[in-house]
Amino acid sequence: MVETAAARAIRLIDLVPYLHNHPGISLKEVAEEFRVTVPEIVKDLDLLFMCGLPGYTPLELIDLSIHDGIVSLREPQNLDSPRRFSQTEALIIRVALAALEELLPDSKRVKVSELREKFTRLFTHQVPNEAIYFESDAERTKLRVISDSMVQGKKLFITYMNPTKSQVTERKISVTAVIPESNRTLIEAWCDLSSGVRTFNLANMKSVNLIDEDSVRATAMDEEANSKATLRSSDESRFIKENASQLEKHGNQILIDVFQDEWLVRSALAEGGDLVVESPDRIRSRVALLAEESLKNYSRNP
Amino acid sequence: MNLTMALLGTKRFMTKSEIFRRVAGYSGTSETKERMFERDKDDLRTLGIEIEVASHDPLFEDEVGYRIRAELFQLREKFDSEELGLVSLALGLIGGSELGETTHSLSRRINSLAVSPITPEEFRLSEIDITEEGLTELLKALSERRSVTFQYRKEGTSKDEDRRVNPLGLSAWRGGWYLVGEDLDRDDVRVFKLSRISSRIDASSPSNAYVIPEDFSAKDYLVMLKPGEYSVAVRVRRALALNLRNLAETVTQLDDDWDLLKVNFKDREQALREILWMGPDAVVEEPAELRLALVESLKKLVTSHG
User: Is the pTM of this model over 0.90?
Assistant: First the structure.
């Protein structure tokens, strides 16, 4: 492949600030970074050695040396800063930052958002900040991070919104299983915060990030005492359609495993009477209690 | 190389004869030198290096001068190490895509800004695939504000239509890219799904062809992001009802215990479900018909579970 003169010129221009800021780097590393062979880099350096500012006395030349495969650039002359970003390049950075912003936990987002605005202001102010909008396929992206964590045996740092308690918590988890259901995906994992195996709804994970901590091998998974609940409902109800895979039907009665009482209580409330929890009593009476409490709100304040 | 450095190093404009005299590498007859200079100049321009040309000296009007403005050529803006770390992280994210070659060059230049290695972020992110055919061309056209032409196949039709568009914004939404642009034939802002563009995108028209309004927001034009039509005023206990808060247009504090949210739901059914889920922590204020429906449902719940 014949290299164009332009590509080489750009490389020469980029080499100087790069070497300037990487003192003591090896020829091999430089070649890798610039995606060329070591002999080509040596040829580049030989040429740079003869470049400089008008006058071309040793004081005005780029000063560099190679010893034992290590490059030192002592005097970059006026090529000490890297090339400025073109407008297109700056726009690519803005897209990348917009993608990053969406993936990080809330606490980190502000900084990325400010940085994105800075790039807009400095390099591409003709394209307004809001002209780039990024919303990824969040579930797919999160699932990819989760599967990476399982392959690499690393923990995840998640921001989790618990819909029943309306709380947001940050947790470190070690994923043991991904359970896809028709309308939701459940993640089973060892949770450091609660020191036990917990089931998370993927949709409620606001952010998922891989961290450099080995995951907990949850060998002795504590079997949570899962109880069964008996339900009554018409086949058309939303709840029945969404959870079809979880249900066992015995005539008119429908059985479901309960991982979390409150989840079933709230689901029954949301169905507004189309779904009736017949047993266990503790769930049944809690549905009634919350409904009564809610009604009071309306009678007090007609 | 020497020409770049010389033109970059000079504050004032350098004339051609000065360049021939002082910059290393120019030799031979004046004709040869002339040819070399023209070639070098063209090369630099191809590389995107802008050479400023100006009359050098009022006394020698016939001789023009040349220089490269450092602030247009070099990155002089300051970024702290956290910022550099975040840009590196962001570029790493999209490095595997079609934009990979560019992002590699960008990462290298970001790395050339700081002597100390960039602080590693505590998070390791997986690469995401942001590539879609035509994205590179449209990013370039948008950044340089060039009109584009392409063929587009509207949803539900099988025939391609010619479109002339001024790109105003780009948006990724759930794995697909959308171009928001002014359709020059229809005289209206339209949204184009990149996967429905059926031809090559031609962006060979001149740059800076139009101006994007400063308050332009791509989000405003994306139909799928339009808020729901069913508007509800709902009172919720403070610090609770996060899922409703996430949907809320406005939040007003009523007293120590309650906030008032204005939420646009997709329809009445969704509103009913979401508010029932909250139990006694959410109370509908308006509309009245939703209040009635809610009370009905709650009564049913009490009866069936009592």
Answer: no
| Level-2 CATH architecture, domain A5-75 | Orthogonal Bundle (1.10)
CA distance A261 to B167: 52
Range 70-99 of B in CB contact (< 8 A) with A: 70-77, 82-83, 86-87, 89-91, 93-94, 99
Q: Is the domain defined by B135-224 classed in CATH 2.40.160?
A: no
Which of A79, A267, A294 is best to mutate for the B interface (most B CBs within 10 A)? A294
Query: Minimal CA–CA distance to B41: which of B11, B15, B3?
Result: B3
| C-alpha separations of B293 from A35, A151, B245 in Å | 67, 49, 22
Q: How far is CA A7 from the centre of its chain?
A: 35
Tokens of B82: 């956290």
Q: How far apart are CA A9 and CA B51, in angstroms?
A: 16
Domain ranges of chain A: 5-75, 87-131, 138-214, 227-300
What does the pLDDT look like over B14-71, one tens digit per residue? 888 888 888 887 888 888 888 888 888 887 777 777 788 876 555 555 677 888 888 7
| A255 CB burial (10 A radius; 0-12, 13-18, 19+) | middle
Which ipTM did the prediction report?
Answer: 0.72
CATH number of the A138-214 domain: 2.30.30
Q: Tell me: the pLDDT tens digits for A57-92?
A: 888 888 888 888 899 888 888 888 888 888 889 999
Nearest by CB to B277, which of A9, A51, A266? Answer: A266
The C-alpha angle A122, A127, A132, rounded to 5 degrees, equals 105
Class of domain B230-305: alpha beta
pLDDT for A254-298, tens place per residue? 888 776 677 788 888 988 888 899 888 888 999 999 999 898 888
Tokens of A173: 């988890």
Q: Across the strands, what pairs with A67?
A: A70
